[in-house]
Amino acid sequence: MTSSADVVDELHRRGLIAQSTDEGELRAALAAGPVTYYCGFDPTARSLHVGHLIQFMVLRALQRAGHQPIVLVGGATGLIGDPRPSAERTLNSPELVGEWVERIRARVAPFLDRPAAEQGLLAPVYVNNLEWTAPLSAIDFLRELGKNFRVNRMLAKEAVSARLNSDAGISYTEFSYQILQANDFKELHERHGCTLQTGGSDQWGNLTAGTDLVRRTHGVSVHALGTPLITRADGTKIGKTEGATVWLDPEETSPYAFFQYWLGIDDVDVRAWLPLFSERSPEEVAALIASSEEKPQAREAQRALAEELTRLVHGEDELRQAEAAGRALFGRAELAELGAATLEAALSEAGTTTVEGEWPTLAALLQQSGLCSSLSDARRTVKEGGAYLNNVRIADGEARPVSSDVLPGGWLVLRRGRRTVAGVRRAEVSAV
User: Fold this and answer.
1) Model confidence over 294-325: pLDDT tens digits?
2) Contact 68, 29 (CB under 8 A)
3) Which residue of 144, 152, 271, 381 lies most exposed, with the fewest beta carbons within 10 A?
4) 372 and 338 in one domain?
5) What pLDDT, in 10s, does the model give residues 212-233?
């Protein structure tokens, strides 16, 4: 367990602090005793994504140091939306936002509830800012909150200024967002004694708006801590793979796909991201980085990070299934041992094909699945010993699959060579 006095040093060592208010005061407050701190997540989608993981790294580090976490899911601010630099957000219905609040709340729990239960740490408090925002009248909003904000400072916020100078402009709705987020800090200070807010450095204007509001209304100094924005070496956002977002919810991104994302990251990225996302000791992290530099082909660092984060987000059982799926697809484990859901998730990443009617020949399946360009190519691949059905080398390309070949969910797994895989299923066979 990290001591309260050392937690800021740990956060700096891992590269988790990009900005902070008075760090000397913050260190003193953390060293003096348990501090109540919070981080907010807006339900602007059905799930959080891997870019949010950095916030959980900070939340968990402070929790391990003995401090009290609060997790806010913004049922109110999610109805408004933090201004984006490019365009106005689409306003979602209250019913949809309410559904997303519950989904996100359920996914957040394991990050902080599990260590609280297993290690005797302070259990998180969960709040929804709709509780105190919904009863707020327009008059109260203007008299009690609005009078504490100066428009010139609000205009200086990066996203706001970008929108003001664009053709899109900015609505008063989104312009007011920072007042609502600042009010969250004030309410949590009053209700729970909260004195620290954490968030992304792109939220710095909102974070400091909260510290200013608490100072103006209560005459006390509270703190804000901003995390760095994480991008890949090529400049793209973390969690983007072939244009798709890598989500934390297994219904949006399967545990197998999540595991494979981390396993496939660039060597440069894994060296930069290991300190941020791994809770291993500094010595273990340094050894993994050294391994990546000396033996990049082994991908030891990527595998270590994939295992750690899949375990954290999805649990030990799903990690084992994700690892087993990878081994099985490429011939290093038994495919029949995989559950239907894991097999389907793994094959959806590899590519799948549905065939009508009775099973065609294996050579035809190799062609229809896209593993071979033509029947002659498929027959040649079989003859050369490079085609596999369920990890068993195909001896006869004119043979047809039989019922005993069919895996859970109705799948056949075809492979060409060592790494090229496709799943095939008959149209009338439903997944188990």
Assistant:
1) 999 999 999 999 999 999 999 999 998 888 87
2) no
3) 152
4) yes
5) 999 999 999 999 999 999 988 8
